[in-house]
Write a structure and sequence with these properties.
Length: about 600
């Protein structure tokens, strides 16, 4: 059988654009003689559309789309993802009193929906395993196959039953799944195992699975787990994932594609690209091809995330302005913006005060020259002085000092960037990182502003690694090594230019780099942990077995009093800075 994996660049909430591209791919697959074309989960509406699922007009539009796609199926089987609104026996309304909505895989051939072996509900498979964590809220919107079966007192195999696809006088028994059904380890049922028990020829899993760091390894591990359970009974599995970007309004999610046909040994046989790009991959079932995974995938995700946000959200109409302090965060962002959008659309500004080091100003100047972007520089000293005089006039004589003075500088820079953006018809790139954001080490209306935060889900340590990848890409130190830590004897740090907000004399960032980077990830990334879990690690001594143990020792945190003092400092900042986090720009998400 000749199969087409249609790794569609799904655009959330833009069904007509998705349908147009799907039709083009179906036409091309027919031209190349494909017997079956497979699209991702929710390929018509997009997966991340939030409460649009509750809109009657949207649901009607999706139902019409299903009939349209079915009409394209002359001579070719089509499997695609969309919402299905229907009644299933005694399951007539959803929990919210609205019509039942299901996240479904649909299957049509020759203008009809393909039948199941048990004759139940032709052409429709309802997702059974419903993710309700992180960005996912499936149970809020959809009814699962498990729930429908329970309401009707049906066997679970009512839905999990082979579809019969007849092609060239041969009937293929195909199992359909939707995304999480493959990741069934923590659920009460395993659709993959149930299909294998019924002797299907192969399984198709359609997915809208956002990429996070090392996601590709997680996929391979899950396939290996299925093989370990099924042994010689394992069947080929075709996994078709979306590519591109979808966003929740706060979190910008990237989809890497990496659509793959896995063999009975769980190893990839044929794969689409995993570089976040659309692809139509046509192959003969049972054949294999060389697979070339993307190198420096995190760097690729950041570049593609900027491209997609600029295109989908902003329409590619604006320039991007960026504050160029000469620190590692803004330096990396300037490079990413230039790689993603081209030098003509980037404008950098160095807005120095008396506290900015000549070395960082020099780095900003050289970077702008190397990137060949427009670059402007000036001092904010006069503005700071004028602001202090204005505040004096309100009765706060001599009060612009200490933290107030630091925040005045940050907000004046934010004010200037906003004005520059208005003049340039531009948007602002936010330069914050994950550790700063977690601890509130940012100034509202100052360095917390922006249209988009490419680095907001990256710790400082991850930025050091990205800097090295960027330098390797350019073939020289476009990001100076003076901005990066030097590690000696495995646990000793030295800095030529240590991280600093440069808002007062001799200022250094208060974070314990490497240790606090680990702690932020430990607390935030899924499955999230609490301060109790941190204390348990410490009191049990288990921290000594972790890679981060050397940084505990480096900062003297093996001493209980020092550990508790630091943890209290960390948690106080974490807790009271929530108001900053919820006002932060949309973040490109790269972590679980």
């Amino acid at each position: 059988m000749k199969i087409a994996m249609a790794q569609l660049h799904v655009k959330a909430g833009r069904a007509q654009l998705n349908l147009e591209r799907m039709h083009e791919m179906v036409t091309e697959a027919k031209r190349q003689g494909a017997d079956l074309i497979i699209f991702p989960e929710m390929s018509v509406p997009g997966y991340i559309v939030l409460d649009k699922w509750l809109q009657t007009s949207f649901r009607v539009e999706m139902a019409q789309a299903n009939e349209l796609i079915k009409s394209w199926s002359d001579g070719i089987g089509i499997i695609w993802g969309n919402i299905v609104v229907d009644e299933f026996g005694d399951a007539k309304i959803n929990r919210d009193g609205r019509p039942i909505r299901c996240n479904a895989a649909l299957f049509a051939y020759n203008n009809t929906y393909v039948e199941r072996e048990n004759k139940f509900k032709s052409g429709v498979y309802v997702k059974h395993c419903m993710p309700d964590y992180r960005f996912f809220d499936d149970s809020r919107y959809f009814m699962s196959g498990v729930e429908i079966a329970g309401l009707n007192q049906w066997q679970i195999t009512q839905f999990i039953n082979p579809f019969l696809f007849e092609k060239d006088h041969h009937i293929y028994r195909i199992g359909l799944e939707v995304c999480e059904d493959l990741w069934s380890k923590d659920y009460s049922i395993d659709p993959t195992a149930l299909y294998i028990e019924q002797g299907v020829d192969f399984i198709v899993n359609i997915s809208a699975s956002p990429w996070t760091l090392r996601k590709e390894l997680s996929r391979e591990r899950r396939m290996a787990e299925h093989v370990a359970i099924q042994g010689a009974s394992m069947v080929p599995l075709i996994y078709v994932n979306a590519s591109g970007m979808q966003n929740t309004g706060k979190n910008v999610l990237m989809f890497d594609g990496d659509s793959t046909c896995y063999g009975v040994d769980g190893k990839p046989m044929v794969s689409c690209n995993d570089a976040f790009q659309e692809e139509l991959c046509i192959f003969e079932l049972g054949t294999s091809r060389p697979i070339q995974p993307t190198e420096k995938k995190l760097l690729e995700a950041l570049i593609q995330g900027i491209i997609e946000f600029d295109h989908q959200i902003l329409g590619g109409r604006f320039k991007w302005v960026i504050g160029l302090s000469g620190g590692v965060d803004s330096t990396i962002n300037a490079v990413l913006l230039t790689l993603a959008l081209g030098k003509e659309r980037i404008v950098g500004y160095n807005m120095a005060s008396r506290y900015n080091r000549p070395a960082t100003i020099s780095i900003a100047q050289k970077l702008a020259a190397d990137l060949d972007i427009i670059y402007q520089e000036g001092t904010i000293e006069e503005l700071v002085g004028s602001t202090a005089k204005t505040i004096d006039a309100f009765g706060y004589v001599g009060k612009v000092e200490g933290m107030v003075l630091e925040n005045v500088q940050a907000r004046l820079r934010g004010h200037l960037l906003s004005t520059f953006a208005a003049i340039e018809n531009a948007v602002i790139c936010n330069n914050g990182n994950k550790v700063e954001l977690a601890l509130g080490y940012t100034t509202l209306y100052g360095d917390a502003i922006g249209a988009f935060s490419p680095l907001g889900d990256l710790t400082k340590v991850q930025l050091f690694d990205i800097a090295q990848d960027i330098n390797a890409l350019y073939g020289y130190e476009i990001i100076p090594s003076s901005l990066l830590p030097q590690i000696h004897d495995e646990d000793q740090l030295t800095w030529a230019i240590p991280p600093s907000a440069e808002l007062k004399d001799n200022q250094l960032d208060p974070m314990k780099w490497y240790y606090h980077d680990w702690l932020v990830r430990f607390m935030i990334e899924y499955p999230t942990q609490s301060v109790i879990d941190v204390m348990d690690l410490y009191l049990s001594g288990k921290w000594r077995d972790l890679p981060v143990a050397k940084w505990f020792m480096h900062y003297g945190l093996d001493q209980p009093a020092a550990f508790i003092e630091d943890l209290e400092w960390f948690m106080n900042l974490w807790t009271r800075s929530i108001f900053k986090r919820i006002q932060f720009p949309p973040i490109l998400t790269i972590s679980r």
